[in-house]
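hiii, so i know i said id send this last week but things got crazy w the move. better late than never?? heres the sequnce for the chain we talked about at the cafe, plus the structure i predicted for it. fair warning i was half asleep when i ran it
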Amino acid sequence: MTLLSVKHTHVGGPASRALRYLPVSALILDLVIITGVVVVATWGRRRLGVFDNPADVSGSLSVAGPLIVVGWILAITLLGGHRQDLFGAGTDEYVCVMNAGLLAAGLLGVGSYMAKFELSRGFFLLLFAIGIPALILGRFLLRRALYKARRQGRLQNRVLIAGAMSHVDEIADVLRRESWLGYHVVGALLPSVDHHAETRAGIPVVGTCERVTEVVQHSEADIIFFAGGALTSPGQLRRIAWDLEQADVQVVVAPSVTDVSAERVRVRPVGGLPLMHIDAPRATDALRVGKRLFDLVGSIAFLIGFSPFLLLAAAQIKLADGGPVLFRQTRVGRDGKEFACLKLRTMRVDAEERLPDLHAAIGHDVGLFKIKDDPRVTRPGRWLRRFSIDELPQLVNVLRGEMSLVGPRPPLPSEVAGYGSDGYRRLRVRPGMTGLWQVSGRSDLTWDEAVRLDLYYVDNWSVLQDLNILVKTVGAVLRARGAY
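okay and structure toks below
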């Protein structure tokens, strides 16, 4: 395919002009928070009597207040806290705000000493003890609002992807899946030997990789992604960057690597060549003593804390039909070892006998079987499933060492029998009571998506990820998304 009329190249998609006001919005938010904190610290020093001494900042607030506000805002700006590319993903934004607060605290302390300015220690302590967390919280709330807007199709960047068709579709699939990133793919550029009007994923082809500069310059794209197959020489990207130097277009190189966490990636320039180093997968780390100790302490604490719910649920199950309270189901754990996974019984006692008929009715073949309004679920079973209370007995499995608090979903032997080579990697670690699959939608996920999330967890395990998943599990349970 060739580009017939470069001057009329147009890529559709949501307008992204409002993104230019994001740094200004963050600046105004920081200004409001810092001003409010100065007032609160002044009031708190006077009312609470922190570090009670003759010094009183309120008398000199007309001088110190504006200087503190301006100085703190300048510190955030100088450290890059209002850069356009800082918002939306990663921890750099929060680190920048925290470092700016520490810098402002240091400069204020040293400046007051050098100028012999009588600054209240109580005011100083309250100012930064409240101010730094408040600024981080403000940025967090701003980010949540940004994510919500992007999921609704607003505040998005228009993206062109250049490369071989398979690479273009792979990158586009990731960007579509992670809609909170705000990347709206509006067109593709393929090698000139590839004559297609659109890619297999339905992305319109707007030009060729050989004429990428012309297409980008005359389009309304905000970002150009270079995927595998886009470049024919090492110097080509450098020349494209020179050509786009004056254009308001961001250049991104997307390597042919997916589902790798940022903690495992390091970029080291060597002789002007940026080399991406990827650390080994972390499946072994997820089996260490620290994680096991965390599971033991956590499971005991949860068993004690949730014991009233377990007793209430057991009574309702017994009163409903007189059947057993617990349901034991064979699941596959670490290294393919089978174990009896414990749950509160939420289905009729003949649920397993009726399963083949349900499989045949809906044409189920492979993967986890769950349907909405399952006729086998009992009346108390519906609310037990809705809030995942039926899974609490699995804390006993965690105590036994058969499961972990966080990990891949424990599969059935029939599911394992249908695994491909990738699926078996899920069995490298203990299965979990909760995991990425649960906080990402549970039964609403497709089978392939559930496998992908489990593999991501196995390869990219970290303590912080476990804690993050546990926190998100609370919200997932309360929302009851995919719980049936």
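btw Residues 289-321 form the longest helix (33 residues). thought thatd interest u
miss u guys!!
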